[in-house]
Design goal:
The structure holds two protein chains of two kinds. Chain A is mostly helical. Chain A is built from 14 helices and no strands. The chains are: A mainly alpha, B mainly alpha.
């Protein structure tokens, strides 16, 4: 009894509170990550998965995958997809945040409702955009035709460049509200007095944006961009449902390629190797992000 | 602060109208999906397209009841069970853990928090292959337990990081007062801290549910039998087999959105708190 009472009084009881969650995550995330590394240096496929005769092959999987070209192409595609998405969603998100940060009646309501796309399951978003981008019934082709911008329907999802544009568009739709809300939070931390005194000094509009908003928003902008990179770089569902990496790997991302290797071709070790490439890049980005956001919190 | 920049009435109206127009344009994909689900197949293929159904067709919803393998309402139920269970696990585990890292100083705390932060940013794709093999070896493929356990891993780090700040912000005086009243730390946790943090716990529950509800990767990989699959995997399969049956597909999409939309409209305030707190502060 005495020991229990002592434990209850001391700070060490914290371990008891944190242990279940920590163990859970170690078993269901930590262990799979390690196992994934092991898998990637073995030769596990559907043929030998049950036999247990897994041979150590070193970095052969990585070398072979990089040499056959699709892994490099997927890496480039993922970067193109990510960077294009971040730029567009950041700029549109910033414009919306600035606009809705002004005090008019509908601002709050509109800002709230615009969060909707962020909540919708990616599978559904993918389906909606697949429908809108479809060649014959798609509303996008219908509108472009009606406006006279194109003479015949575009095969959005079956030509390489337009397929990439289509998946980027769909992802930006989800990314805009995310950027907008984070930038709005950043904007509200800028004291209004700064703008008032600036306007007395004759600085308005672009000038006050350039010299007050932008510098003070810089920390928020940095974290929004890095966070955007992390969230976009790992996108899977959206592209998987819309194009499944096609046509001919034109929209193949690291995530979809890893899935294809593991679950369409049943080459589990190859799938694990591609997933590890994704993992390493994201780990680096995450650590950069944490350094940004927690650099100033360390002092507390 | 709202009174800092009073806007002229005319400008206020102009801005509001413009904002609402932007909103309508932005949410057009949702509207288009909804009206398509209520059109007949012929009307969907009509050129130029009709802006709303000329004949209201609810068959796309009703037909799903008899679709055998692709029974939409069955997969809706599957998703409900999976998402609610994952939510339960996430809340049960993350509340005490967040309390510990939010209110105590102990060795290794920084490292533990860092682990949760990093796992929050990890993609599902990295865990998919190893998890599949691990669960296969445990004979848990096509068993809901596997997908529930996997889905909860998305909600746990998020919840801990949000709730940590809630717990940390509670003043020490409250704990001291509780101790004088005869509470020890365990009973103070249940009687003082949990009731105060209910709003935060609600945010975590909502997000853990939504993460699990929206998951496709775990659901379709770990559950191989269509009748047991969650609704997102159902949509994906349906898309593969009846790729141009847009009235059915959009109806499927609308049914999947319904719980999300209800949560969104009722709990908007909580959701925005969660989004901003979770993403900016980590």
């Amino acid at each position: 009894m005495g020991a229990i009472r002592k434990l209850v009084r001391s700070d060490r009881i914290a371990y008891l509170f944190v242990a279940p969650a920590l163990l859970y995550m170690l078993l269901l995330v930590g262990y799979p990550i390690l196992y994934n590394i092991v898998l990637s240096v073995q030769n596990v496929t559907v043929k030998n998965i049950n036999s247990g005769e897994h041979i150590f092959v070193g970095l052969d999987n990585y070398i072979r995958l990089f040499q056959n070209g699709i892994l490099s192409q997927s890496t480039v595609n993922t970067l193109v997809f990510t960077i294009a998405c971040i730029i567009v969603q950041f700029l549109l998100g910033l414009l919306l945040a600035l606009f809705l940060n002004r005090y008019f009646t509908a601002a709050k309501f509109v800002r709230g409702m615009m969060m909707m796309p962020w909540m919708i399951p990616m599978t559904v978003t993918a389906l909606m955009f697949k429908f809108m981008f479809s060649t014959n019934v798609g509303i996008i082709n219908q509108m472009l035709l009606a406006l006279g911008l194109i003479v015949s329907p575009i095969d959005w999802l079956t030509s390489p460049v337009t397929a990439m544009i289509a998946v980027i568009t769909a992802n930006v739709w989800v990314g805009i509200p995310f950027n907008m809300i984070l930038l709005t939070v950043g904007l509200t931390t800028i004291p209004a007095e700064l703008y008032e005194s600036a306007s007395i000094d004759g600085a308005n509009g672009w000038k006050s944006f350039r010299h007050i908003t932008l510098p003070l928003l810089k920390p928020t902008i940095e974290s929004v961009l890095v966070l955007g990179f992390i969230y976009t770089f790992k996108v899977f569902d959206l592209v998987f449902v819309m194009t499944n990496g096609g046509p001919v790997n034109a929209t193949q991302l690291l995530s979809t390629y890893s899935y294809k290797l593991s679950f369409s071709l049943f080459k589990y070790s190859d799938g694990a190797a591609v997933a590890n490439v994704l993992f390493v890049i994201l780990l680096i980005a995450s650590l950069i992000y944490l350094k940004f956001t927690y650099a100033d919190e360390e002092g507390k | 602060m709202d009174t800092c920049f009073p806007m002229k009435r005319r400008n206020n109206l102009l801005f509001s109208v413009f904002a609402v127009i932007l909103l309508i344009l932005f949410l057009l994909p949702l509207y288009w999906t909804l009206v398509t689900s209520l059109k007949t197949e012929q009307e969907i293929f009509q050129i130029p397209p009709t802006l709303w159904p000329t004949t209201l067709n609810t068959k796309s919803y009703a037909a799903q009841l008899e679709m055998g393998d692709f029974n939409m309402f069955q997969s809706f139920g599957n998703s409900m069970v999976i998402a609610l269970s994952a939510m339960g696990i996430a809340v049960l585990l993350s509340v005490p853990a967040a309390y510990a890292v939010g209110r105590y100083r102990f060795k290794g705390k920084k490292l533990i928090v860092l682990c949760f932060l990093v796992t929050q940013m990890l993609p599902v794709s990295v865990l998919l292959t190893p998890m599949f093999i691990i669960f296969k070896n445990m004979q848990l493929i096509s068993n809901w337990l596997s997908v529930i356990l996997a889905d909860a891993t998305i909600g746990i780090p998020f919840s801990i990081l949000i709730l940590k700040n809630y717990f940390a912000s509670i003043p020490n005086e409250l704990e001291d007062a509780a101790e004088i009243d005869g509470c020890n730390r365990v009973s103070a946790f249940f009687r003082i801290f949990i009731p105060i943090t209910i709003p935060g716990i609600v945010v975590c529950a909502i997000f853990s549910f939504l993460y699990a509800w929206g998951d496709l990767a775990y659901g379709m990989t770990l559950i191989q039998k269509q009748p047991l699959r969650p609704i997102t995997a159902g949509i994906f399969n349906f898309l593969g087999q009846y790729g141009t049956k847009w009235s059915y597909l959009t109806a499927f999409a609308i049914v999947t959105i319904i719980p999300v939309a209800i949560i969104f409209l009722c709990m908007q305030k909580y959701i925005i708190t969660g989004l901003t707190a979770g993403a900016v502060k980590g």
